[in-house]
């Protein structure tokens, strides 16, 4: 990335999983490591952007040069994102839980002989779709599509449904080693076409993506 490629820009990135409370001690989570989102935030900061990274619970250190906001649930993440706007670029790299449970305020007790509890799931807000439709929509809204089949077709569908400008699609099927791993094989899907990258370290994917985002922003402004 050229130094200063994103100078003067505000970039908001979501990263990591979300935790959805079941009761005060239990939660629903997913296997997102936050590696890709954190690498994107770090690369954008190196490119000169002011970066707000909103991340769920991860085992990673805060990337240097970023304002980092730690959240737990999808609803907390949405609130933090709304607080962080306006921005020039939004990158939704978090693995946001699709559903939550109506959390119990007290620990659910295991009673002798009682039936196992069951939970009704409630749909979480879609942060990416909400940012893409916000009245202060960032000029560039980028989503991720982690798929196990028909990666490109699903990404195209997601692009339209979520109203974003770009989808970074990748194959997370078992054996791909992408989820939680250090490498990613990404396809950049936009309304004008698909750009497929080789398998790269997540840091390298982040650098390429940041360079492309700077180019796309410049093109949009020239248009
Ligand atoms: O629909 P799906 O979860 O596959 O879409 C993935 C993309 O949408 C990612 O960019 C993810 O960060 C974003 N997303 C979101 N809020 C949700 C679900 C997904 O921002 N509730």
How far do the termini sit from each other? 23 Å
Please report which band the strand proportion falls in: under 5%, 5-15%, 15-25%, 25-35%, 35-45% or over 45%. 25-35%
Count of separate DSSP helical elements? 5
- What is the second-level CATH architecture? 3-Layer(aba) Sandwich
State the CATH class.
Alpha Beta
Q: Segments where pLDDT lies below 50 for 5+ residues?
A: none
Multimeric organization:
single chain
Region (Phosphopantothenate--cysteine ligase): 11-223
Function: Catalyzes two steps in the biosynthesis of coenzyme A. In the first step cysteine is conjugated to 4'-phosphopantothenate to form 4-phosphopantothenoylcysteine, in the latter compound is decarboxylated to form 4'-phosphopantotheine.
Catalytic activity: N-[(R)-4-phosphopantothenoyl]-L-cysteine + H(+) = (R)-4'-phosphopantetheine + CO2; (R)-4'-phosphopantothenate + L-cysteine + CTP = N-[(R)-4-phosphopantothenoyl]-L-cysteine + CMP + diphosphate + H(+)
Protein name: Coenzyme A biosynthesis bifunctional protein CoaBC
């Amino acid at each position: 990335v050229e130094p200063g490629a994103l100078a003067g820009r505000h970039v908001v990135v979501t990263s990591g999983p979300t935790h959805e409370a079941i009761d005060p001690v239990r939660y629903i989570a997913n296997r997102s490591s936050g590696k890709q989102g954190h690498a994107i935030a770090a690369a954008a900061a190196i490119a000169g952007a002011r970066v707000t990274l909103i991340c769920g619970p991860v085992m990673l250190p805060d990337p240097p040069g970023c304002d980092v906001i730690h959240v737990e649930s999808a609803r907390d993440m949405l609130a933090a994102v709304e607080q962080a706007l306006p921005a020039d670029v939004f990158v939704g790299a978090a693995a946001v839980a699709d559903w939550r449970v109506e959390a119990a305020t007290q620990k659910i007790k295991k009673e002798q002989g009682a039936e196992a509890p069951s939970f009704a799931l409630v749909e979480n807000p879609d942060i990416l779709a909400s940012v893409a439709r916000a009245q202060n929509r960032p000029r560039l809204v980028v989503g991720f599509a982690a798929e196990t089949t028909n990666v490109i077709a699903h990404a195209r569908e997601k692009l339209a449904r979520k109203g974003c400008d770009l989808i970074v699609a990748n194959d997370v099927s078992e054996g791909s080693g992408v989820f939680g791993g250090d490498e990613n094989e990404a396809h950049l899907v936009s309304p004008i076409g698909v750009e497929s990258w080789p398998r790269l370290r997540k840091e390298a994917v982040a650098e390429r993506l940041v360079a492309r985002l700077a180019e796309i922003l410049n093109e949009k402004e020239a248009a």
